[in-house]
TrEMBL record:
This is Sulfite oxidase. Residues 41-213 form the Oxidoreductase molybdopterin-binding domain. Gene3D superfamilies: 2.60.40.650, Oxidoreductase, molybdopterin-binding domain (3.90.420.10). The lineage of its organism: Bacteria, Bacillati, Bacillota, Clostridia, Eubacteriales. Residues 235-351 form the Moybdenum cofactor oxidoreductase dimerisation domain. Keywords: Metal-binding, Molybdenum, Oxidoreductase. InterPro entries: Ig_E-set, MoCF_OxRdtse_dimer, Mopterin_OxRdtase_euk, OxRdtase_Mopterin-bd_dom, OxRdtase_Mopterin-bd_sf. Pfam families: Mo-co_dimer, Oxidored_molyb.
Length: 352
């Protein structure tokens, strides 16, 4: 019996802990918790289930403090979806940008269970003045660019907060959310980059103005110019994207048949097509999707059977298209904080 080969996370930083999923070696639809990518801004917080309460205050009619067991008794729903760090693939921007040098493993897919946020807000009632919903996390620390301590906090516009699939989640893959991934409650925002899906939710505040916290106003914005804030726009929906899991770049292959395979996902609609080029983009061929089109929110696996008879070096590319007509560009839109990279995925291989 052959021994089981177990992949490892790729460490980008130890404190705060930031780890990449071994995305090229995971064929499962659901990422096991052991391989789920980890993105932190600060050290891990400290809180216990016994002391856990969730206040919802602000522009509401009946402010309330929910107990964890109150939330878990409410009608719930399951959603399978990927969480992707907005800095995923940052290392591939040219010119290079500062920040955590994520390659392609800052993405994982899980099965989340929780209560729609709109149901909690319906119980307490929103005032007409409600404009945004702010989520404050338990983790906090210092920033190099500002004085004082800051909790990680971000807001959602009221329309997104009231979307029926925006969840206050308490389970991942059928079990309580692991501590490193937000236990006991995590906000899950489908089709948005993972900075919106705040871990360790401490409190929720409904406000009548635009939230100006540093993780909203400074970070998680696209800045198209190196030395100017002109054209600044917020990071929100996930860009359509794909990766080639196998073969990996700089692999040496033999003549014959090979399977080029990977994953595709999007933040708008569903994946309807993946194309593969084995000649550096000169010609494109349709890959076979894992299903006719991806399920709403979830990624889809794809494969392309490649028969190669000539020795030499080959540039293999993949590009995905979604139901809104979005397609991966040959070059990602450069921005100085390195968010939203989604250029055509490319690997270089040699056939001997």
């Amino acid at each position: 019996m052959k021994p089981t080969i177990i992949p490892f996370l790729t460490t980008r930083k130890l404190n705060p802990e930031n780890q990449e999923t071994p995305i090229h070696f995971l064929p499962q639809t659901i990422t096991l918790k052991e391989y789920f990518f980890i993105r932190n801004h600060f050290e891990y917080p400290t809180q216990t289930q016994e002391a856990y309460f969730l206040p919802i205050v602000g522009e509401v009619i009946r402010p309330i403090i929910f107990k964890l067991e109150d939330i878990m008794r409410m009608p719930s729903k399951h959603l399978m979806l990927p969480l992707e760090c907005s800095g995923n693939n940052r290392a591939f921007f040219h010119p290079k940008v500062y920040g955590e040098q994520w390659e392609d493993g800052a993405i994982s897919q899980g099965l989340w269970k929780g209560v729609p946020l709109k149901d909690l807000l319906a119980l307490i009632g929103l005032k007409r003045t409600a404009l945004e919903v702010v989520f404050e996390a338990y983790d906090y620390g210092k920033r190099m660019d500002l004085e004082g301590d800051f909790h990680f906090a971000r807001s959602l516009p009221i329309q997104k907060a009231l979307h029926p699939d925006t969840l206050i989640a308490y389970e991942l893959n059928g079990k309580p959310i692991p501590f490193k991934h937000g236990y006991p409650l995590r906000l899950i925002v489908p089709q948005w980059y993972a900075m919106a899906s705040i871990k360790w939710v401490k409190r929720i505040v409904v406000i009548d103005h635009l939230f100006k916290g540093p993780f909203q106003e400074i970070d998680y914005n696209y800045y198209p110019y190196k030395d100017s804030d002109k054209g600044k726009t917020p990071v929100a929906q996930i860009n359509v994207s794909s990766i080639i899991q196998q073969p990996q770049s700089y692999s040496i292959l033999d003549n014959g048949k090979h399977v080029v395979e990977g994953i595709a996902w999007t933040g708008t609609g569903v994946i309807i097509e993946v194309e593969v080029s084995t000649d550096g983009g000169e010609s494109w061929h349709k890959a076979i999707l894992g299903q006719e089109q991806s399920h709403l929110y979830s990624w889809t696996f794809w494969k392309y059977d490649w028969k190669v008879s000539s020795k030499g070096e080959y540039l293999i590319m993949s590009r995905a298209r979604d139901s809104f007509g979005n397609i991966q560009p040959f070059k990602a839109k450069w921005n100085r904080k390195g968010y939203g990279y989604n250029a055509v995925y490319t690997v270089k291989v040699k056939v001997e």
